[in-house]
């Protein structure tokens, strides 16, 4: 009963884990797609080959990675032409020869689906590791986006069956366009769970758009018999949207169990049971009335003081933005609070 309770019922003093051996060998095939829709539509065919992972990287993430000196040479090796999306398809096992045969079958499959030459094969372990590091840095790469709008996390954990993935992502993209914005997509295509973050300015009208987009996304996920919270915790942001997944009787049981385990509501309050509204401004990073302080920094931050069109990705010239601190505040706002800069193996201090 504690698994999945997100710390709302008790805490564990000791946990015993059952470990599994790591595979001896891995190979990676990077499938390049001329359209994002094709990447989503063909995932259902790729998983039939039995890969251990199928991970998505969209065009926005590719472009941002290409502007980062640490990631540019790695991501460029994975590209064939100018793809709108790539899928990282990994096979793992103890027989390296059999794994290379699976890479060949992946190549043949893509040719049969009308995309000959779309697979960049990476049998080398070092090249694989470097590319996976780029994928794992997905959040940091996305948050390196300049301008007032940022990829906002509130519908990034929805999951739908693979046969509906292409249609779901297409319809959700149309919703983003209705609000004059675009979404960034990456992560677990193999199980229909994509981390999508619409680009919104949460200091202005982003909160209003966020709720309206969430309402449509929730309806779409329900239509396709998916899950609004597919991988991550429900937390403050998704709590109000997941009740329909369980129904009134189970939700009532959740409340009763919570009150029995934690009558004083001390364990991780306001999660799962009686959550707040997602747009409760008391929980916002940018409080109402937020503004940059006017100051003149000693260093030149003008490269961050720009405007960016969320639909086209076009940026204005350095120093043309509205930041009254000359770009310093814009650089600070890139922080996504995941603490990667405090790791000893982080490479650059701030990966965003």
Going by helix content, strand content and strand pairing, the class is alpha+beta
Strand order of the largest sheet: 4-1-3-2-6-7-5
User: Beta-strand level of the residues, as a percent range?
Assistant: 5-15%
Radius of gyration: 22 Å
Shape: globular
* Tally of distinct domains: 3
The end-to-end distance, rounded to whole angstroms, is 38 Å
Share of residues in helices:
25-40%
User: What order do the SSEs take from the amino end to the carboxyl end, as H and E?
Assistant: EHEHHEHEHHEHEEHHHHH
Segments where pLDDT lies below 50 for 5+ residues?
A: none
The name of the CATH topology of the largest domain is Alpha-Beta Plaits
Largest β sheet strand count, sense and barrel closure: 7 strands, antiparallel
The tally of beta strands, per DSSP, is: 7
Structure description:
The chain is an alpha+beta fold and 352 residues long. The chain has 3 domains: 118 residues, Alpha-Beta Plaits (2-Layer Sandwich), CATH 3.30.70; 132 residues, 2-Layer Sandwich (Alpha-Beta Plaits), CATH 3.30.70; 53 residues, no CATH class. Helix content is 34%, strand content 12%. It is built from 12 helices and 7 strands. The chain has a 7-stranded antiparallel β-sheet. The longest helix has 18 residues. The model has no long low-confidence stretch (mean pLDDT 91).
């Amino acid at each position: 009963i504690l698994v999945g309770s997100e710390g709302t019922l008790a805490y564990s003093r000791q946990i015993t884990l059952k470990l599994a051996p790591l595979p001896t060998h891995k190979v990676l095939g990077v499938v390049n797609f001329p359209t994002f829709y094709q990447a989503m539509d063909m995932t259902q065919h790729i998983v039939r080959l039995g890969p251990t992972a199928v991970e998505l990287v969209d065009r926005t993430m590719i472009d941002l990675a290409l502007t980062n000196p640490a990631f540019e040479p790695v991501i460029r090796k994975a590209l064939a032409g100018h793809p709108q999306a790539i899928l990282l398809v990994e096979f793992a096992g103890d027989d390296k020869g059999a794994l290379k045969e699976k890479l060949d079958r992946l190549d043949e499959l893509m040719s049969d689906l009308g995309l000959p030459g779309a697979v960049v094969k990476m049998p080398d372990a070092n090249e694989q590791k470097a590319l996976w590091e780029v994928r794992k840095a997905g959040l940091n790469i996305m948050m390196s986006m300049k301008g007032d709008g940022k990829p906002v996390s509130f519908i990034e954990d929805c999951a739908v069956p693979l046969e509906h993935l292409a249609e779901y992502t297409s319809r959700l993209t149309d919703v983003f366009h209705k609000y004059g914005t675009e979404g960034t997509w990456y992560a677990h295509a193999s199980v229909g769970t994509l981390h999508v973050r619409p680009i919104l300015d949460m200091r202005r009208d982003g909160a209003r758009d966020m709720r309206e987009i969430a309402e449509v996304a929730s309806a779409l996920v329900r239509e396709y018999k998916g899950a609004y919270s597919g991988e991550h915790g429900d937390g403050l942001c998704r709590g109000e949207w997941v009740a329909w997944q369980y129904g009134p009787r189970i939700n009532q049981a959740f409340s009763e169990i919570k009150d029995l385990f934690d009558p004083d509501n001390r364990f991780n309050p306001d999660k799962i049971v009686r959550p707040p509204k997602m747009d409760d401004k008391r929980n916002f990073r940018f409080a109402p009335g937020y503004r940059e302080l006017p100051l003149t920094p000693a260093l030149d931050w003008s490269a961050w003081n720009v405007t960016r069109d969320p639909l086209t990705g076009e940026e204005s010239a350095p120093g043309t933005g509205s930041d009254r601190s000359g770009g310093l505040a814009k650089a600070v706002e890139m922080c996504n609070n995941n603490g990667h800069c405090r790791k000893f193996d982080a490479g650059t201090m701030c990966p965003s």
